[in-house]
Write a structure and sequence with these properties.
GO terms for molecular function: metalloendopeptidase activity. This protein is mainly β. 10% of the residues lie in helices and 34% in strands. Strands 5, 6, 7, 9, 10, 11, 12, 14, 15 and 16 form a 10-stranded mixed beta sheet that branches. A 4-stranded antiparallel beta sheet has the order 1-2-3-4. A two-stranded antiparallel sheet has the order 8-13. A hairpin with a 4-residue loop joins strand 3 and strand 4 (90-97).
């Protein structure tokens, strides 16, 4: 007898009910090759123990053909992230904790605008670890990664060609008035799907703003930076181009605000945006022209 597929929105019910065999049968072949049924059931039962009901908290689509869902048990704050393809197969299941921090209630004193012109896509951003992989790490907890898309795609043509990415070479602008206090440059852009972890920020600019707040703009294109330490910049002024330097495998712009000049020592601050609206993963946003 053929068992009807679980709809993505029903996953939480079936997991909470312990229907692990049924869930596993719906996983993609690559998933099955990496984990057998007995191991999956054992891990799932251990994670479910002590929980009551996993409810759908978030969903998103970051790439064509794959939808992600976040399920949370309110009593234990345990989180399951599932990914389904268009064929209805489960291509990924991740067990985690849905973390929240008191610092979520603290916003920047200054208001910041988006650090680019035109239309961009929020790849990672928001105040939980489903929508923002930076979130568990206090030094970049409220960071954003932005890319550009056209027709749902981040690139045209060959994905191995750096110049095929819409974000690559796009203008990067100052998010608020301030003084440039540090410039990191001379770091080659990576080929797509490669990273330079020896210089994680890559080519980057740190700007000091009023109230001792500092913005970091990272992974900039090599030899594109237009400012140097000591320069005063105004909000919206072009300061560089988006690149793929540092710990970046495809072109994107990393942006966050922190309470000190050292990115690996200062704590990130949740950004108060000039628009009054906080972007989150999956949003399409527009910077000033």
């Amino acid at each position: 007898m053929t068992t009807e597929n679980i709809h993505p929105e029903e996953f939480g019910y079936h997991f909470s009910s312990g229907n692990f065999d049924r869930i596993y049968r719906q996983t993609a072949s690559l998933f099955k090759a990496r984990m057998n049924m007995d191991d999956f059931a054992e891990a799932a039962e251990e994670f479910r123990d002590g929980t009551e009901k996993f409810q759908l908290k978030h969903q998103s689509q970051l790439e064509p053909g794959i939808r992600r869902f976040c399920w949370v048990d309110a009593g234990t704050e345990r989180m399951i992230v599932t990914a389904f393809n268009d064929a209805g197969e489960i291509v990924g299941v991740q067990f985690d904790i849905y973390e929240k921090f008191k610092t979520d209630r603290v916003l920047t004193i200054n208001r910041y605008q988006l650090p680019f012109t035109g239309e961009w896509f929020v790849l990672w951003g928001g105040a939980n670890n489903f929508v923002n992989y930076h979130y568990p790490h206090k030094h970049q907890r409220y960071a954003y990664d932005f890319i550009r898309k056209e027709g749902g795609m981040a690139h045209s043509g060959d994905p191995d060609d750096l110049n095929a990415y819409y974000a690559y070479s796009s203008p990067v602008t100052a998010p608020a008035a301030g003084k440039v206090v540090r410039v990191l440059e001379g770091i080659a852009d990576n080929a797509p799907f490669e990273m330079n972890t020896d210089a994680p920020e890559g080519n980057a600019i740190i700007i000091e703003h009023a109230n001792k707040e500092y913005s970091l703009l990272a992974h900039l294109r090599n030899r594109s930076i237009l400012v140097e330490a000591g320069d005063e910049v105004s909000a919206g002024e072009m300061i560089a181009q988006c690149g793929n330097s540092g710990a970046s495998d495809t072109p994107h712009l990393h942006f966050h605000v922190m309470d000190g000049i050292e990115p690996h020592e200062a704590d990130a601050i949740r950004i108060q945006f000039a628009s009054g609206r906080e972007p989150v993963q999956g949003d399409t946003v527009r910077g000033r022209k």
